[in-house]
């Protein structure tokens, strides 16, 4: 038991697999303006299986046990007393980014966050969010991320994210609208998705 053997570990995350058994990105880098750019302007290599992330910066998985910034909250293991000491999940987050916030506060208290990919669970991701918000789901992620930045990076960083992120998402929305002339419905849905994200960043939604 990693948690029992290592009291410095605040929480452990595991590998997440979808319904077909494919490994999903299961841990990530704390959100910042730098990770926003890294996740939306270019693919990042060198940390295992990577993907670009809409708003959330960079998420990935690694092939062996490693200390990371934060782990996806679909499956976490930790000690109850540590969870209580830091106040548990912050209820200001309605949905999304509460796992990143928890890991951030753990690390601020001196604990480490450990990712153990040798253990995997099935995670049918985003079912609740997709049912409730459909194409607006990513905009709700962005809303929670702005809150995270305001709480932990300050109002200037949150404002920078809203300006920069909104501009990036607007450009992606416009590009998708232009593609829709040749690619049809899929590009229209993508354009609307980025437009909802833009509106949240710019305070219109």
Secondary structure topology:
Blueprint: H1 2-5, E1 9-17, E2 23-24, E3 27-28, H2 33-41, E4 49-52, E5 58-61, E6 66-67, E7 70-71, E8 76-77, H3 80-85, H4 98-108, E9 112-122, H5 127-133, H6 137-152, H7 155-183, H8 185-201
Parallel strand pairs: 1-9
Antiparallel strand pairs: 1-2, 1-8, 3-5, 3-7, 4-5, 6-9
Helix pairs in contact: 2-7, 6-7, 6-8, 7-8
What key attributes describe this structure?
four-stranded antiparallel beta sheet; five-stranded mixed beta sheet; 48% helix
Architecture overview:
This protein is an alpha+beta fold and 205 residues long. The chain folds into 2 domains: 2-122, Spore Coat Polysaccharide Biosynthesis Protein SpsA, Chain A; 133-202, no CATH class. It has 8 helices and 9 strands. It has helices at 2-5, 33-41, 80-85, 98-108, 127-133, 137-152, 155-183, 185-201; strands at 9-17, 23-24, 27-28, 49-52, 58-61, 66-67, 70-71, 76-77, 112-122. Strands 1, 2, 6, 8 and 9 form a 5-stranded mixed β-sheet that branches. The radius of gyration is 17 Å and the shape is globular. The termini are far apart. The relative contact order is 0.17.
